[in-house]
Amino acid sequence: MSDQPAQPLKRLHIKTYGCQMNVYDSGRMADVLRPLGYVATDTAEDADFVILNTCHIREKAAEKVYSELGKLREMRDRGLAAGRARMTIAVAGCVAQAEGEEIMKRQPAVDLVVGPQAYHQLPELLTRTARARGERIGADFAPNEKFDALTHEKIGARGGDGVTAFLTVQEGCDKFCTFCVVPYTRGAEWSRPVADVLAEARELAARGVREVTLLGQNVNAYDGEGPDGQPSSLARLAYALAEIPGLDRIRYTTSHPNDMSDDLIAAHGELDALMPYLHLPVQSGSDRILRLMNRKHGRQKYLELVERIRDARPDMALSGDFIVGFPGETDADFEQTMDLVRRVRYASAFSFMYSPRPGTPAATMAAQVPDAVSRERLHALQALLTGQQVAFNEAQAGRTLPVLFERKGRHGAQAIGRSPYLQSVHVEDADHLIGRIVPVEIERGQQNSLTGRLQQKAA
Ligand code: SAH
Ligand code: SF4
Ligand code: F3S
Predict the structure, then answer these.
(1) Does the beta carbon of 321 lie inside 6 Å of ligand 1?
(2) Domain 277-394, CATH 3.30.750.200 — does that match?
(3) Pairing of strands 135-137, 112-114
(4) Cα(357) to centroid(ligand 2), Å
(5) What is the pLDDT of residues 137-160, one digit of tens each?
(6) What are residue 164's DSSP bridge partners?
(7) How far is the CA of 428 from the centre of ligand 2 (A)?
(8) Which of 153, 168, 178, 188 is in Cβ range 3.0-4.6 Å of 362 for a Cys bridge?
(9) Ligand 1 centroid to 176 CA: how many Å?
(10) Which CATH class is domain 400-454?
(11) What is the pTM of this model?
């Protein structure tokens, strides 16, 4: 064994909070640091470089960063006392973008603050940090530079990808919902060119990826430049992706109701690769609240949209996001949300108590709803949504569903895969099928997963 490696190995730990776009970005940060000798580790303990990839969406998410930084600082001090090299600490993601200055002030242990559009500069920033601590970089939005630098050259170096992968195709948001920080932390809507997306998808497929989830804060507003120089819709992109050999499943998230175009709805009826599961947040069922939220559509429009989608694809499973306790929300408004949920029947959903965010219009609206009221509404809504999820899962019993096996289960030869509706499916004696799509007889549906068995002994 050689005791002189070309590059001394350094340990990199990235802790990811927030949405899938952060998960994708964390992967790209690891890619860009790999040529410098950084190897990813699961724990911060003993790491040479720790990056917190943060989320600013709700107060709790943002506050977590500061407690985590406190812990890291202690960890670093312990390491130094034990004679280890000094750990470099960076904050990335949406908190970095939104309150970089404050991070530096509140936690001087931070070496580097880097916004979501500047990850490609990490190698250079690291060298600079070694000389001068406490820089804040990357407040400007330039997603084209980010993607050019992060994907094309570096993708060849990416390793360890599994059966499914995220692929960011769109970033940013122009919608300015009055409760939301994303337009401020991620900048304006921007779509990657079709050719770039296809190139990355081909790489992923060549690596054994069978399912891609296209990501964007408003993914269905996708309008990346097509081969003819004209903007391409998400539907057209999906058709092109479906041509790639090995890529059998396509998903996308998150969609705004107003960008759910006719061609995308039609594609759900025509394109087998497009999975029958759609995350279509509505936030509230009350017209009055939707107006205050600046969602730019009413409840009737959403309900009609759901109907049109189900006409195109009758088995479409829907999921959504809800906010309760938005300023001014009355019992009657909340009842409208409950009523909408009963009509739509969701397969799964996320619901949150409204959290006032600095700099957003809703934070200063009159009639903020008391926490106790919001909490009660949240419980009622979650009970309803959980009931719908359980009903949806139980209704799969007796059906045979194509399952894409992703990983080994916890015991024996069990394997875990996904149904077309994004449900986890647990199957015994199936661990030889990872990476394959196989028909599974569903025996039982539980709250969070399905249990099934192989139809016949697959070879
Ligand atoms: N672009 C997506 C949402 C991204 S944020 C969309 O428009 O649907 C994910 C979810 O977080 C939102 O759908 C919303 O339900 C929730 N959220 C955003 N800001 C929030 C806030 N200030 N308080 C509580 N929940 C919030
Ligand atoms: Fe936030 Fe609204 Fe944009 Fe979604 S559409 S990211 S909720 S501002
Ligand atoms: Fe959070 Fe930023 Fe995503 S605020 S939800 S990590 S876009």
Answers:
(1) yes
(2) yes
(3) parallel
(4) 13
(5) 554 556 667 766 665 344 433 333
(6) 211
(7) 41
(8) 178
(9) 11
(10) mainly beta
(11) 0.92
